[in-house]
Write a structure and sequence with these properties.
heterodimer; A: alpha/beta; Rossmann fold; 5-stranded parallel sheet; 4 helices; globular; B: alpha/beta; 7-stranded parallel sheet; two-stranded antiparallel sheet; 6 helices; 29% helix; 24% strand
Chain lengths: 119, 187
């Protein structure tokens, strides 16, 4: 699942991942991400950090609080800067990071790599 | 073969990719490697199996009291702190998070004791925060060898940077160089 308020990022990621015959869902906000998890989503989450209302860290906190963390591998989509330290208590739930803008091949390598952990 | 070396690798966000580079075709070394990778519990098994496929060393998730053996890599299970007892056995326990994480790299590294006949190696790879910083200080104080991943190859430079800033790191290396150094120190 790709979680990003930037529609161009969502569409691009979706296209890249689908071309590789991997099922993908999108969420434009943290709330939408949580709804997908409520519906039973299990898999990899590519999560943007900076989003309005509920940012990536807030969303991860909710994922942990609601117990969905047992079903997902979280990778964060970051900008140029490295993530700050404000969410130290959530860092252990993030397995990897990919920096925007990213290369299509790097994205698909990352997704395939962690899909293998779920098989 | 008597156990003569112990390496502890601490790793967090982005670590699985870096560990893959280090362990790919890593030959059997004279000693044990303990890997503390922050990760969700449900990926412990697949992560361990992946490393097992990459290296000639045996890669296992230890149980409580597991006696460590040369040529073996131990993956600390999620949600348990992992200590070494007299550098020879593994003690796992549920405890308060240290540096906001469990297992904590500091806990494992600080449990290692000085042995004149043993090379002790501490390595800090990519990750957020400062876990491993005190562990590196400890390993340096017992005359072990300390290594931090370099900035260029680190997905998140937080942990290596904190370790380097202690002034206790002997080598700042990329994954390929870390692998070469491990082979050199553990042959």
């Amino acid at each position: 699942m790709i979680v990003d308020d930037d529609l161009s990022v969502l569409q691009t990621c979706q296209k890249i991942i689908r071309r590789n015959n991997i099922k993908v869902r999108t969420a434009e906000s943290g709330k939408e991400c949580l709804k997908e998890l409520e519906k039973g989503f299990k898999g990899i989450i590519l999560m943007d950090i900076i989003m309005p209302e509920m940012d990536g860290w807030d969303t991860i906190e909710e994922i942990v609080n609601r117990g969905y963390i047992k079903n997902v591998i979280i990778t964060m989509l970051t900008g140029k800067d490295q993530p700050g330290e404000k969410m130290d208590h959530l860092k252990e739930y993030v397995l990897d990071y990919i920096r925007k803008p990213f290369d299509a091949q790097d994205l698909i390598n990352l997704v395939k790599r962690y899909l293998s952990y779920l098989e | 073969m008597a156990l003569s070396n112990i390496a502890i690798i601490g790793s967090s966000a982005g670590g699985p990719r870096i560990l893959k580079e280090i362990f790919t075709e890593l030959p059997v070394l004279n000693g044990s490697i303990i890997v503390i990778q922050h990760m969700p519990e449900f990926v412990n098994k697949s992560f361990t199996e992946e490393l097992n496929r990459l290296t000639e060393m045996e890669v296992v998730i230890p149980d409580y009291g597991h006696e460590i053996a040369p040529g073996t890599v131990y993956i600390a299970p999620s949600e348990y702190h992992c200590e070494l007892i007299n550098n020879s056995k593994i003690r796992l326990y549920k405890g308060e998070k240290v540096n906001f994480v469990c297992p904590s790299i500091d806990v494992t590294m600080k449990s290692v004791v000085k042995r004149s006949y043993m090379n002790i190696i501490g390595i800090i790879l990519t990750g957020m925060g400062s876990d491993g910083k005190e562990g590196i200080r400890h390993i340096n104080s017992i005359y072990g060898t300390t290594i931090a991943q370099d900035k260029y190859s680190s997905i998140i430079f937080g942990m290596p940077k904190e370790a380097i800033e202690t002034g206790c790191v002997d080598y700042v290396l990329n994954p390929e160089q870390i692998k070469e150094k491990l082979i050199e120190l553990m042959s």
